[in-house]
Amino acid sequence: MSKKYRLIASATMGLESVVKDECKDLGFENIETFNGRVEFDGNEKDIVEANLHLRCADRVFIKMGEFKALTFDNLFENIKRLPWENIISIDGEFPISWVSSVKCKLFSKSDIQKIVKKAIVERLKVAYQTERLIETGAHYRVKIQAHNDIFLVMIDTSGEGLHKRGYRNLINEAPLKETMAAALVLLSRWKGGERPLLDPMCGTGTIAIEAAMIARNVAPGVNRNFASEKWNIIPENLWIDLRDEAFSREDYDKEVKIYASDIDSETVEVAKLNAIRAGVEEEIEFKCMNFLELETMAEKGCIISNPPYGDRLLDEDAVERLYGLMGDIFQMRFPKWSYYIITSYENFEKVFGKKATKNRKLYNGGIKCHYYQYYGAR
Prior knowledge:
Blueprint lengths: L4 E6 L5 H10 L3 E6 L2 E6 L1 H10 L5 E10 L3 H9 L15 E7 L6 H19 L13 E7 L2 E7 L21 H11 L8 E3 L6 H10 L20 H13 L9 E5 L2 H14 L5 E5 L13 E4 L10 H18 L4 E6 L4 H5 L5 E7 L2 E8 L4
Parallel strand pairs: 5-6, 8-9, 8-11, 9-10, 11-12
Antiparallel strand pairs: 1-3, 1-4, 2-3, 4-7, 6-7, 12-14, 13-14
């Protein structure tokens, strides 16, 4: 008999509605959206599905509880009341790995950490009728998020963040996370088919690779491991079965045309390797070229780009020149295409020379950006 849990998919600010739509598509129930997270009900199978399939969430947590605490005694009693033994095994290792406290009476993170740990230990000792907890088994990282004296208590089922798909060469770390790149593609509504996709400043290829995975319906977490794979509450064969099911749902019949280029030849080589690791090298044509040489390859299509900005290109004149040229080239050579551009540069529309159909505020690596969306011909 499977148990019901309240689950949380954490999300970068601005992406909550995208993650909510993903949760709906996966058939999760009682979905609610909050700042930086989406909550839903689910069982063990849903924990596995969420980790394997969510493209834009940061991590998946089990929500243990939410309560108000004004004193450390209060905090201790509330934590001790939670049914930790339902999840943490007798030999489980449970570090209090992440604490944040904003506008709270209890603000010392190290004190919160100690009190929470002590309360869980007390609860588990009674539940397992033991004097000592050895903590040599599976990992159950506990996260505490406190805001305005309300404490949200969670256990991390993912381990490493969901953006770590396993295909990226970490030596050349791109400034765009895989989860954000996937969100840019999903927001563009591009899904493959006849319309090509172009990223003319592709860097290490993250947008193109995520687009190829979306078009082919490749589950983003299918080739990596998760903390909860070692948990007693989830049968091992469930991971095997749901991975197999994910593989069987991949779609290799649809036409997929993705073009990605960059001026830096070393970066393009890294992008090619990343695409091979992700298993989508057939879908993407990489080229080393200056975007000034771009030529259209179809009447209609979709450009998604994360051009240099802010900390990545410090000289404002260079940014303005670049964005002005982008505006000219896109509008002259790709007049019926849709363009989607993420940048932190506030005067983008003015310099680009056209007002966006729509724009959306997103945070990329903590930098406030806008995602400018220009819709092309129907």
